[in-house]
């Protein structure tokens, strides 16, 4: 099979022909249709993501994928040959990633692809959707009528978090720049232009100085600090997917509110709790089938041969949605 190999950090990939992996008794072999690109991939490639525990040299990166199962291990009972699936399956901790034509995958990490989206759209979902679900459902347990503030609602995790919260009946606000207002309105969120409102101003205007029930920080740094002052007293809950560095908890403590972090990669690195990822994606497929969730996907088409262009598009911030790499031959009708 063809695969993109990383020999050294911060160096170009090398396309190589390597043996197709063989699925063991507890794995499935997936013919990969598309691989989703995440900011994490760029950090790993540049050697700036030690927490991902990538094994070098000769690493195959890429965490997200969609594809079709072509063989099934003897101990696998919940999938069969021909199933269209998607998942966050590798690229970290020494596991083969998705920038290759095939991957042997732990089926606990997979779910059946929703029938009303393409393979390209499905490949956009796993990492950002699992992260958003863990934040909104597992940590915050949002309820109908909850007021939710999502920082960065036009981003990958943000736009999915908005849709999950809306599907649960929450009232969702989001901080965005002025050029992103229509995007988040179309997702059902109430936009807050962070270039025009201070934290104090939007808390006053949108919550009558009460604060939000839930605040999701997808940006980190000073945005996380601001989140600690934006939650409701006593019952408010802040969740961050980038809770790194040093932060004063005093503003949060003075409000009597709570905080949770999300580390989506842990099951891949540790091998523990992987079934939960598959269960999350199964629930997400249901939301997609009912029309309650749809990923924003960049309209450009990229292949393994043009991955450098895809990465540049992500780095310059001009992508309109998630960037996806087409892995399969476009003439394969089952993987289009």
From TrEMBL:
- Which is one GO molecular function term here? oxidoreductase activity
- Pfam families according to UniProt: ADH_N (PF08240), ADH_zinc_N_2 (PF13602)
Tell me which residues make up the Enoyl reductase (ER) domain.
7-325
**What InterPro entries does this protein map onto?**
ADH-like_N, ER, GroES-like_sf, NAD(P)-bd_dom_sf, YIM1/Zinc_Alcohol_DH_Fams
Q: What is this protein called?
A: Quinone oxidoreductase
From which lineage does this chain's organism come? Answer: Bacteria, Pseudomonadati, Bacteroidota, Sphingobacteriia, Sphingobacteriales
């Amino acid at each position: 099979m063809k695969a993109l190999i990383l020999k050294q950090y911060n160096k170009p990939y090398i396309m190589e022909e390597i043996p197709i992996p063989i699925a063991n008794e507890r794995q499935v072999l997936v013919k990969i249709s598309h691989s989703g690109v995440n900011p994490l991939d760029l950090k790993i490639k540049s050697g700036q993501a030690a927490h991902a525990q990538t094994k070098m040299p000769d690493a195959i990166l890429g965490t997200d994928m969609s594809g079709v199962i072509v063989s099934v291990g003897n101990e696998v009972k919940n999938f069969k040959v021909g199933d269209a699936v998607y998942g966050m399956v590798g690229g970290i901790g020494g596991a083969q990633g998705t920038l290759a034509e095939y991957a042997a995958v732990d089926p606990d990490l997979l779910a059946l692809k929703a029938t009303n989206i393409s393979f390209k759209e499905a490949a956009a979902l796993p990492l950002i959707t699992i992260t958003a679900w863990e934040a909104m459902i597992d940590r915050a347990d949002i309820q109908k009528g909850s007021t939710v503030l999502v920082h960065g609602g036009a981003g990958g995790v943000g736009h999915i978090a908005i849709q999950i919260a809306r599907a649960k009946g929450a009232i969702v606000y989001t901080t965005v720049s002025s050029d992103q207002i229509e995007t988040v309105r179309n997702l059902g969120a109430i936009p807050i232009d962070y270039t025009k409102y201070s934290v104090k101003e939007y808390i006053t205007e949108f919550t009558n100085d009460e604060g939000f029930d839930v605040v999701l920080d997808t940006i980190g740094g000073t945005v996380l600090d601001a989140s600690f002052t934006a939650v409701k007293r006593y019952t408010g809950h802040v969740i961050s997917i980038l809770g790194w560095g040093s932060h004063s908890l005093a503003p949060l403590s003075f409000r009597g509110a709570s905080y949770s972090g999300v580390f989506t990669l842990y099951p891949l690195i540790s091998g523990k709790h992987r079934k939960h990822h598959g269960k999350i994606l199964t629930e997400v497929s249901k939301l997609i089938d009912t029309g309650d969730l749809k990923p924003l996907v960049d309209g450009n088409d990229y292949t393994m041969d043009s991955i450098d262009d895809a990465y540049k598009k992500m780095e310059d911030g001009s992508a309109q949605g998630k960037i996806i790499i087409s892995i399969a031959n476009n003439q394969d009708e089952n993987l289009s």
